[in-house]
Amino acid sequence: MTQTTTTRDAISRNRVADFATTDGNRYWWHHRPECRYEPPVYSWLTDDEWVLFRQWFVESEAEFGTGTGECGVPPMSMLHGLIAGNGMTRVVQLGHYIGYSTILISLLMQRMGNGARLYSADIDPRATEFTQGWVDRFGTADVVDLQVTDSSDPAAVDRAREVFDGKDPQLVFIDSSHMYQHTLKELDLWYPALQDWGFIVLHDASTFAAEFDAKGGGGVKRAIDEWNLVAKDRIFTINSTFGETAAMGEDLAYVDGCGLGLLQKLPR
Ligand SMILES: C[S@@+](CC[C@H](N)C(=O)[O-])C[C@H]1O[C@@H](n2cnc3c(N)ncnc32)[C@H](O)[C@@H]1O
After folding, report:
1. 24 and 144: one domain?
2. Closest CA to 133 of 56, 54, 76, 44
3. Largest Cα–Cα distance in the chain?
4. Is 213 in the pocket of ligand 1 (CB under 6 A)?
5. Within-domain flag for 1
6. In this structure, which residue's CA is closest to atom 20 in ligand 1?
7. What is the per-residue pLDDT across 47-92, written as a single tens digit (0 to 9) for each?
């Protein structure tokens, strides 16, 4: 099988069964023999939401190709755990691309019914227009504010605070340029804006993912390493050395070799 289907027939059997044999790196998680089940980040979706989400896979692939721009099941599971496990109401995302994480976080927030809001910044107008179209189709526009902007622009912090009725973010998910200098700028900007006890989560934080730095500057990993030399609150990285000390096929416990950085801002 080489294509996803969007029929109700597919969901009645096992919503993700065919993803295991669907071509494309964006289905890598489902290709793993241990992962032939519906992950909780998908299983709580209603049938109608799931049909629409499958349609998102089909249309996003038709328009943007089969790349793996979205963060995928392991980081989404961590984010859903943090947000839904704690009733978080003020979440920032830096980099929404074509909507995967935005759709899943906004649906979750709407279900939580506690007034939670997502502010998301992305420099790409075309990706933002596509994501906004899907937010509208999912009916979550009331919980999401998408802006076309550089995520290291201080105006983005002001906008986020407006969206959060003047309050500070509780969680900032950094998944944007993957460039060393730009990631440091994001940390310098968003860390002071974060509420005490709040979190910053960084995707693509491993040695392997440092390749994603288009300027070859060392990526998120180098930014974290330098941040940790001087910062009061250090960043812990899952799978930090993947790419140096391990390669594809390794028996990882957290199966995304791109790694995930986690910082908590402690009060002073
Ligand atoms: C990996 S994708 C985000 C994926 C998304 N979080 C998801 O899981 O569905 C990275 C996004 O960051 C955006 N980006 C790159 N440089 C940026 C910058 N300087 N400011 C804001 N966004 C940027 C890109 O346009 C792209 O859409």
Report:
1. no
2. 56
3. 55
4. no
5. no
6. 150
7. 999 999 999 999 999 999 987 799 999 999 999 999 999 999 999 9
49 in ligand 1 pocket by Cβ < 6 Å? Answer: no
Residue 2 within any structural domain of the chain: no
Q: Which whole number is the average pLDDT over 150-156?
A: 98
Cβ 153 under 6 angstroms from ligand 1: no
Range of the domain at 99: 73-264
Q: State whether 100 and 43 are in the same domain.
A: no
**Which pLDDT value is given to residue 2?**
47
Distance 98 CA to ligand 1 centre (A): 9
What percent of the chain stands above pLDDT 70?
95
Q: What is the mean pLDDT of residues 212-229?
A: 98
Q: Are residues 23 and 156 in the same domain?
A: no
As for how many domains the chain has, the answer is 2
Unique residue bearing structure tokens 């860390």: 191
Which three-class secondary structure state does DSSP give residue 232? coil
Distance CA 71, CA 38 (A): 17
Residue 131 in contact with ligand 1 by CB distance below 6 A = no
- Residue 108, pLDDT > 80, answer yes
List the CATH number of the domain containing 249.
3.40.50.150
Strand partners, 144: 118
Same domain, 108 and 141: yes
Binding site membership of 200 for ligand 1 (Cβ less than 6 Å):
no
| pTM, rounded to two decimals | 0.95
